From TrEMBL:
Membrane topology: Single-pass type I membrane protein
PROSITE patterns: PROTEIN_KINASE_DOM, PROTEIN_KINASE_TYR
Organism: Vigna unguiculata (Cowpea)
Name of the molecule in the record: Protein brassinosteroid insensitive 1
Keywords: ATP-binding, Glycoprotein, Leucine-rich repeat, Membrane, Nucleotide-binding, Receptor, Repeat, Signal, Transferase, Transmembrane, Transmembrane helix
Molecular function GO labels: ATP binding; protein kinase activity
Regions that span the bilayer: 399-423
Chief localisation class: membrane
InterPro entries linked: Kinase-like_dom_sf, Leu-rich_rpt, LRR_dom_sf, Plant_RL_S/T_kinase, Prot_kinase_dom, Ser-Thr/Tyr_kinase_cat_dom, Tyr_kinase_AS
Coiled coil start-end: none
Length: 752
């Protein structure tokens, strides 16, 4: 019986790994495959399609009662399997069960009181179901409980104080249920609590002072409830607090000036309450605010404090629907990271400061302020605009002379350029009239050599069409240190990616056989995360490498272009899979003694399923990058990815590849460019990350908040991956791990 019950779990795990398309046929195939391998007693003929009659196979979509008889069961994960019915009390027998994951199913009924019997339980995740009733008080028996997530159910009653007996509790998530009452005072005993998420319920009363005793708390989310007290002056006694979400309640009183002491806050949500008074200027001291500052839909009055301009990391500012007056302070131009603003429906007046985030915002972000004028509301400010112009007419005489002098210099430069252009145009016209320029030669260069390695593509690829595609800038996809990539559409309809090498060693052209042998060898490299050449073309002194076309572009485009689009949905599991895929590709290259010359996010291609493939693997075999240049980037690749030791060794190495990969991993974690003016002069992404402790920033503040704030699990995985990136980017090459070890570390993060 124990073996059959164990099989239940195995089947549930197997089935959850497959898509639901043709689910019944897939289930049958899986069961038959298991039977063929294990010869399970009671299953009879493996060809019998009526698997629901097999012993131990349950087709009613419910958890079998006898599952609890597995005395050695430690982990039960049935996430997202369309299971239904009640959670059987029989699975909560005293035993070794440590982890219970039943999320995203259709379970109904109440959570059995017998859950308190499983003293070894450390993680309970039952969110996104249809559970009803109250949390049983026996939950207090689980002394090992670390995570408890029951969000998005139909649970009700009061939040039981017995959670306070779970001294190891790190995360408590009861969001989006029907809980009523107050937060138990005893929660102040939870010294290990890091996240308390009670949003989307009907809780009321004051924010209990006892909660402020939870010194490790970094997220307090009680938004969308009926709390009607005030914000405690001592709120920042929680020194590790990073997320304070109190919006959509009935919280009254003033925002305490002590709020400025919450030095590590990343997000402050106070919108949709009945707060009064002014905006405390001390908020400007919260220099780490990044995600949002939301004070909208309150009864705040007075001026906007200029100190808000010190929040240079803030992305979203919303002070709409209050009674704020005066001008928008020009000091707000210091908010360099600002993307979203909303000043609407206040009593603000004057000229909207000229600031890109303001001008790019929709006019609705400023409407409802009768005294405001200027872009983006209207192009003119009337009298105010005339006064503004008059001011500029009163500039000093020296400035006028300087401007005139500069203007003359620019005019002379432009004139010279135009004259040179006209002379060149005339010379080309004369040459063309004389028959010197042969248009047909330019459009159809003579192909010296070329072939396609893939048999089923030889008829579909036209080499002349390949060459012509690279002569048009409109076909250009990207440009790197060693090559420019073009899109080439064949007459047959086949789409290729063509890489034109920038600095071809002439000896390669003259020794084509060696080049062809290298390309043929690389075309047979068998790894899913490497871009293999499928052919080549040589004409004049130009070499073109042919590859399959990748519709989703590069990792750089995904991170730094797609993420700016409004419809972009951040997804950490996908990014982790990409990081692992790139690491696996590089580990394979090192295994076959190939050192990559230019590892960067721009050289990671994404196929239709966003599987990553490392490109430019041919470069190290075809080019000698040290010839004809003294630029370190020619030896080591793209700026921002270059290991520090390359400056004096001028030689690419495997540890150098690991460093460059570490930069890519930091890009994935932070969504920051490898080189950015925001880091400061002489500071790249690696230095910016490594110097975070000096700036007083925590590791959490380095991560892309759009990802790390989605769930505790995502943030935990991202922090673990950050440690790997820090190892990879160590200044000392000998201290960096090998790529195969990087793969192992990242796989472990994903599995755990």
């Amino acid at each position: 019986m124990e073996a059959l019950c164990l099989l239940h779990i195995l089947l549930a795990w197997c089935l959850s790994c497959f898509e639901l398309v043709g689910a019944e046929l897939q289930e049958q195939a899986i069961l038959q495959a298991i039977n063929q391998e294990l010869r399970v007693p009671g299953w009879g003929d493996a060809n019998n399609s009526d698997y629901c009659t097999w012993q131990g196979v349950n087709c009613d979509g419910k958890i079998p009662d006898d599952l609890g008889s597995i005395s050695e069961l430690q982990i039960l994960n049935l996430h997202s399997n369309q299971l239904e019915g009640p959670i059987p009390a029989s699975i909560f027998v005293p035993g070794k069960l440590e982890v219970l994951v039943l999320t995203q199913n259709n379970f109904s009924g109440e959570l059995p009181e017998e859950i308190g019997n499983c003293k070894a339980l450390s993680s309970v995740r039952i969110g996104n179901n249809h559970l009803v009733g109250t949390i049983p008080k026996t939950i207090g028996n689980l002394s090992s409980l670390t995570y408890f997530e029951a969000d998005n159910n139909d649970l009700s009653g009061e939040v039981v104080a017995e959670f306070s007996q779970c001294s190891n509790l790190t995360l408590l998530n009861l969001a989006s249920n029907g809980f009523t009452g107050t937060i138990p005072q005893d929660f102040g005993q939870l010294m290990n609590l890091q996240e308390l998420i009670l949003s989307g319920n009907s809780l009321f009363g004051d924010i209990p002072i006892s909660i402020l005793s939870c010194k490790n708390l970094n997220k307090l989310d009680i938004s969308n409830n009926r709390f009607n007290g005030t914000i405690p002056n001592e709120i920042c006694n929680i020194t590790r607090l990073q997320y304070l979400l109190l919006d959509q309640n009935f919280i009254r009183g003033e925002i305490p000036h002590e709020i400025g002491n919450c030095a590590k806050l990343l997000e402050l949500q106070l919108g949709s309450n009945i707060l009064t008074g002014t905006i405390p200027p001390e908020i400007g001291r919260i220099r780490n605010l990044q995600i949002a500052l939301n004070l909208s839909f309150n009864h705040l009055h007075g001026l906007l404090p200029p100190e808000l301009g010190k929040l240079d990391k803030l992305v979203s500012l919303d002070v709409s629907n209050n009674r704020l007056s005066g001008n928008i302070p020009p000091e707000l131009k210091g908010m360099l990271s600002l993307i979203e603003v909303n000043f609407s429906n206040n009593l603000l007046a004057g000229l909207v400061p000229t600031f890109v985030p303001f001008q790019k915002s929709p006019s609705s972000s400023f409407l409802g302020n009768k005294g405001l004028c200027g872009e983006p509301i209207n192009p003119s400010c009337g009298t105010l605009y005339d006064d503004h112009k008059a001011y500029h007419h009163r500039v000093s005489y020296r400035i006028i002379l300087a401007v005139i002098g500069s203007g003359l210099a620019v005019f002379m430069s432009v004139t010279i350029v135009v004259l040179l252009f006209m002379i060149r145009e005339r010379q080309e016209k004369v040459a063309k009239d004389a028959g010197i320029v042969d248009e047909s030669i330019n459009d159809n260069p003579t192909i010296i050599a070329g072939t396609v390695f893939v048999d089923n593509l030889k008829q579909a690829v036209d080499l002349d069409a390949v060459v012509k595609a690279t002569l048009k800038d409109s076909n250009k996809l990207s440009s790197g240190t060693f090559s420019t990539v073009y899109k080439a559409i064949m007459p047959s309809g086949v789409v290729l990616s063509v890489r034109r090498l920038k600095s071809v060693d002439k000896t390669i052209i003259h020794h084509q056989n060696k080049m062809i042998r290298e390309l043929e060898r690389l075309s047979k490299v068998c790894h899913d995360n490497l871009v293999r050449p499928i052919g080549y073309v040589i004409y004049e002194d130009v070499a073109l490498l042919l590859h399959h076309y990748f519709p989703n572009g590069t990792l750089a485009q995904l991170l730094h272009e797609s993420t700016r689009k409004p419809e972009y949905q951040p997804d950490w599991p996908s990014r982790l899979s990409i990081a692992i895929g790139v690491a696996e590709g590089l580990a394979f290259l090192h295994h076959v003694a190939i050192i990559h010359l230019d590892i960067s996010s721009g050289n990671v291609l994404l196929d239709a399923n966003f599987k990553p493939l490392v490109g430019e693997i041919e470069i190290s075999k075809l080019l000698d990058p040290t010839k004809g240049t003294a630029s370190i980037s020619a030896v080591a690749g793209s700026f921002g990815y270059i290991p520090p030791e390359y400056a004096y060794t001028m030689q690419v190495t495997a540890p150098g590849n690991v460093y460059s990969y570490g930069v890519v991993l930091l890009e994935i974690l932070t969504t920051r460019l490898p080189v950015d003016e925001d880091f400061g002069e002489g500071v790249d992404l690696v230095k910016w990350v490594h110097s975070a402790p000096v700036r007083g920033e925590t590791p959490e503040q380095i991560l892309d908040a759009r990802l790390s704030t989605v769930s505790f699990g995502w943030r935990k995985e991202m922090l673990a991956a950050l440690k790997v990136a820090l190892l990879c980017t160590d200044n000392t090459p000998a201290k960096r791990p090998k790529m195969k070890n990087v793969v192992e570390m990242l796989r472990e993060i994903k599995q755990n």
